[in-house]
Amino acid sequence: MSAYSDVVATDRTSSRPGRRHAFDPARLLAASARTWFVTALIGQLVFSVYIVAVYGGATLSGDVTRWNRIMPNGHIPGDRVGNTAIALHVLLAVLIMAGGAAQLVPAIRRRWPALHRWTGRAYMVTIALTSIAGLYLVWGRGSVGDLSQHVAISLNAVILCTCGALAWQRARSRDYAAHRRWALRTYLAANGVFFFRLSLFLWLLIHQRPVGFDPESFRGPFLTVLAFSVYVVVPIGVLELYFGAQRSTDSVRQRATAVGLFVLSAMTAAGVAAVSMIIWIPTMME
């Protein structure tokens, strides 16, 4: 079920004859990527349940003002366009997380290629709609945070649409190795909001109080650095390091990258636990 180990099927590091032990660098690298993917997938499932339970529950009960308990200005009376954009953005976020993860599972691609193609097309359209809605919410309706955070979110939307378009184009040209690489970049860029929450609540769990930002205005140097890190730099940057290690014949580089991914998996698990305990589970139980 590795979303990463078969990204470039022709990579010379993906299989090395005569080196089959558990600590073979290529096998260790694939295992570390698989560990991170499964850890992130569990977190995304919990996040998706939270979104459906809280936002969907409030909508079905007719009390959409409950959105404001979770998202500042989540619902503004009389603002039909803005409220619709919020609902669209939240709903499509669930589809992006679930659909993106499903697109990366090799078994689905092999057994149901037609399903993979059509869900992939729907995924790309969903990404475009979500990006447009997100940009409107940030620049048209107004959002929490300062200019730096808004710029980071906007750059994420540009990266997301660009990677998605290139993934689609590579699939149409039947360059499937390149398609998978761009699809992985798209998947990671699409999860910026997820990574932001994990990182923020892990930070709060470590420090036991807000450090580096004002929780009332939701502004501060820590949030600026975090926004550019998770929306622009780190996820795709780590993926490029993985691609480089996968192509490399340097066993030290492969092992170092694998160790880094295992550490990142532990941090991801800790972030999921932190935000689940602090926000997701208590809010769903209210």
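^ that was protein a. below is b, sequence first then the tokens
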Amino acid sequence: MSNIDLSTQISGFKLDNLIFNASGPRCTTKEDLDILLQSSAGAIISKSSTAQLREGNPSPRYIDVPLGSINSMGLPNLGIDFYLDYFRQNQETLTKPMFISVAGLSLDENLDILHKIHTSDFFFPVELNLSCPNVPGKPQTGYDFERTQEVLEKVFEFYKKPLGIKLPPYFDLIHFEQMAAILNQFPIQFVTCVNSIGNGLYIDIANESVVIKPKNGFGGIGGDYIKPTALANVRQFYTLLRKDIQIIGCGGIKNGQDAFEHILCGASAVQIGTQLMKEDVTTCFERISQELRDLMQQKGYTKIDDFKGKLKSL
């Protein structure tokens, strides 16, 4: 299908394939990132980074379930210095963009991490995660609109490199409008919709128990469960945000049709989360990409701009 072009641009950087990993699954260690670099993913993004190494929550903290997943990871990661060092060590041979995800445990920590990135030689986009629902005692910034405004004001006082925002899912139409009004004030280059749906509960009926240990079993829900919500968020923000702010779709993408639906709603790229935990990295990206090419060919499309954002209303 050489005539089917899956390339896109995010923050001015070309991705040969619009499909890449979500921050979370299989992107924490050097080995993880090396495998992603060798895959057919169009980019790689790191695990959401804190200022220092974090072990995260006690196990079991991630469980595959029939229609998706539940997790309360607690931000296990190797710290921002590790991910910046990985970039430096691979900078000359990188064949695709490397995004870094940032999820400090406080506003000051986020600012410190972003200052470090801003003064480093790292030049690819940063995804600032305002939607981490699984750190005990820490609210999601994305659900506090005044706090989001404050965070972005402080960030853009100094940060001039490419930066996007990862958001939690929204459910009320007025919340889409309120968040879009905030984001439209700032030189944000992309928005990733969505992180997992926070604080779901999955039951092991045989043992009459929860299935993950942290937070008495409450965790973020991913996979098939969240695709309709993710699509709604992609669509609403594509409609409400400035046209120069791109949307990265994330949530419930396990095949080419799912990716197509995200693009039809307005996504310029898509990220794979839960499915990347269920399937080998290499086969996952190759399979979904081929399924998307096949569907595009059936419909007579040769590039994503042929149908991006062109969802029809009744």
